[in-house]
Every structure is written in structure tokens, then in C-alpha cells.
Amino acid sequence: MGSTMDKIKGKVNEVAGEARQAIGDATDNREMEAKGAAQEAKGHAQQAKGEAKEKVKDVIDRA
């Protein structure tokens, strides 16, 4: 998977996780809040992976 797709999937997971947390908070559903936080963290990690891939590619392209 390319760096752009990692970043897109990461952003989708981040936003979905934030929404899930908000719904969990509004409904006092702690399990949903926790799952939302985990999904948001996964999104952050995917975006970081995409950025790292992009940086490696830039270094290789300059060599």
C-alpha cells in the first residue's frame, strides 16, 4: 500500500474514532468510547506510517 493510501485510511480511522468516542460519551457507553479511542490511535499510526514511507521514498529518489 502506498503512502497516500496509508494517510487516507489513517485519517478515516481517526475521524471515525473521534465520532465513536463522542457517541460513546453522549450515551454514557464507556466501551464504545474506548473502542473509538483505539480506532483513533490506529488512525494516527497509519498516518505516521504513510508519512514515513513518503520520507523514505524522497530519500531514495534523491540518491
Helical fraction equals: over 70%
The helix-strand sequence is: HH
Q: Number of DSSP helices?
A: 2
User: What about the largest sheet?
Assistant: none
What does the model show?
With 63 residues, the protein is mainly alpha-helical. The protein has helices spanning 3-26, 30-62. Helix 1 runs antiparallel to helix 2. The longest helix is centred in the C-terminal third of the chain and has 33 residues, at 30-62. It contains 2 helices and no strands. It is rod-shaped, with a radius of gyration of 15 Å. 16% of the residues are buried.
Write the layout of secondary structure elements.
Elements lengths: L2 H24 L3 H33 L1
Helix pairs in contact: 1-2
List descriptors.
90% helix; mainly alpha; 63 residues; single chain
Summary?
The chain has 63 residues and is mainly α. The protein is 90% helix and 0% strand.
